[in-house]
Amino acid sequence: MGSTTLNLATSPTPQVRPQPKQKPRKSFWGRLGKIMLFLALVPIVWTLIYRFVPIPGTILMVERAFQGKDVRRNPVPLSQISPNLIYSVIASEDAKFCSHDGFDWVAIQSAVKSNQRGRKLRGGSTISQQTAKNVFLWPERSWLRKGMEAGFTVLIETLWPKQRIMEAYLNVAEFGPGIFGAEAGALYHFGKHAKDLTPMQAARLAAILPLPAKWSPTKPSRRVARKANGIVKGARIVRESGLGSCIKIQKKKKKA
Fold first, then answer.
1. Could you give the CA distance from residue 146 to residue 185 in angstroms, rounded to a whole number?
2. Which domains does the chain have, with CATH numbers?
3. 149 with 40: CB under 8 angstroms?
4. What pLDDT is recorded for position 39?
5. 3-class DSSP assignment, residue 107
6. Which of 150, 209, 42 shows the shortest CA–CA distance to 142?
7. pTM for this entry
8. What confidence tens digit (pLDDT) does each residue in 82-101 have?
9. Is there a contact between 98 and 243 (Cβ–Cβ < 8 Å)?
10. How far is 237 from 45, CA to CA, in rounded Å?
11. Cβ neighbours, 10 Å, residue 129
């Protein structure tokens, strides 16, 4: 008998195609975290930029323009603003400017008690708080704005020197309807540059800061005149006692 060879044909092994890796879906919390991080970084970056870059404008300036006001503004470095005005705003608005961290807690508590007694609303805002509001926010009062104002106050006190806070404040504060900044205010009201303001002129400009749309430094009411006289005395105390020592004042060179 002849031998027979059994030829077993082997079937090919099926090839398994590798499945593409599925990208993990971004969770709701992951996206929310990124959004929150972005929202937290924006104010910090914004504040850092304004430490070195001139402030182009404010929301209040835009509002005044829409109201039909002729908005005037001439930004200048702090060295071009009279020390008389610097000392005057410290005396009238924030005597503890150089020593506090952005908030005058005693003044805030006093304002709260006064308002609770039903008296006319008064604020306890420091120059730092006013700068935060004027530069980054809107003027209308609300709890949201006050909360954001507190946040920006912490940022500018942390990221800006006091010199820059004062410079920003005096370049965006309103000194008349649509008149923004010390230079524009001095030119509009007195026809001179901010660096040439006398103690009384500086005091009158500081006196109208609470109500610049109603009060005038050139035709002061009895209230404004009385307040300005007090500011002149207060500015002298600020200068002599060192309450404004955080601001570097450049001494005028004597002419040969």
1. 27
2. 32-241 (1.10.3810.10)
3. no
4. 85
5. helix
6. 150
7. 0.84
8. 999 999 999 999 999 999 99
9. yes
10. 37
11. 23
In sequence order, what are the residues at sequence separation of 6 or more whose Cβ sits closer than 8 angstroms to the Cβ of residue 4? none
As a whole number of angstroms, the distance between CA 59 and CA 255 comes to: 43
- Tell how far CA 121 is from the center of its chain: 22
Token pair recorded at residue 232? 């002149």
Q: Which residues, including other chains, have CB under 8 Å from residue 57's CB and lie 6 or more apart?
A: 73
Please state the length of the chain. Answer: 256
Structure tokens at 110: 């006093």
CA distances from 165 to 42, 66, 160, 196 (A): 19, 27, 7, 21
User: 77-86 pLDDT, tens per residue?
Assistant: 999 999 999 9
Return the beta strands (E) in 101-217 as ranges: 179-180
Place of tokens 């919390």: 29
**Helix 162-172 and helix 127-136, axial crossing angle in degrees, nearest 10:** 60
Distance CA 47, CA 148 (A): 13
Helix (H) or strand (E) holding 49: helix 28-52
In the numeric block, the tokens 């920006």 are attached to 152
